[in-house]
Amino acid sequence: MVTFCQRWSDQLETKEYKLIEDMDGTISSNIYDFYWNPFLYYVIWQTIYLVKTEIISKRKLEYNTDIMTSLRWMTRKKTSSSYKLLSVFGEHNQLPTFVLIQAAYTIATFIICPLLWHSIVLHSLYLALIFIIALSNGATNSLPRSVKLNYKPKGMQRMPKSWRPSKRNRQLSRND
Fold first, then answer.
1. Could you tell me if residue 51 is inside a domain?
2. Residue 45 lies in a domain
3. Could you tell me the pTM of the whole model?
4. Domain span holding position 102
5. Per the domain annotation, does 58 fall within a domain?
6. Tally of domains in the chain
7. Positive/negative CA dihedral, 117, 119, 122, 123
8. What is the pLDDT of residues 21-53, one digit of tens each?
9. Is residue 84 part of a domain?
């Protein structure tokens, strides 16, 4: 939302909404700005994460299996589809497979960025889609499944005596 407001503030003030704006710069500069730079930041983040989980905290993570990493979470059930996907090249190659799949997913998400940057209409539709998905997820997952609602449609439960108003308070409320 912040990116939207910063990017489109001029168009919002002038109320000029082109479907697609002209691209500034060359194809190589756009590739550099929209793909290479963000992917470089991703590689730096992924490297730091792997150093932390596979070198610095390796003993702690091996000792305490209750601490969840992304890979542990996805491979905790051997019958899950994520486990099967990450074990395609063998269980011993789950980590490199996970890193490569995550990198491919990250690159795939970058594809839409230039379209959003150069079109206020597409950017607005994208934000509306995200809002609808979040609203839908929030509506379906608002309560944990373990929560049981004590709803009895046939009649209301009696209030405990300690919650009931005293006789004097009931008489006062009738006189009002």
1. yes
2. yes
3. 0.61
4. 34-110
5. yes
6. 1
7. positive
8. 666 666 677 677 778 888 999 999 999 999 998
9. yes
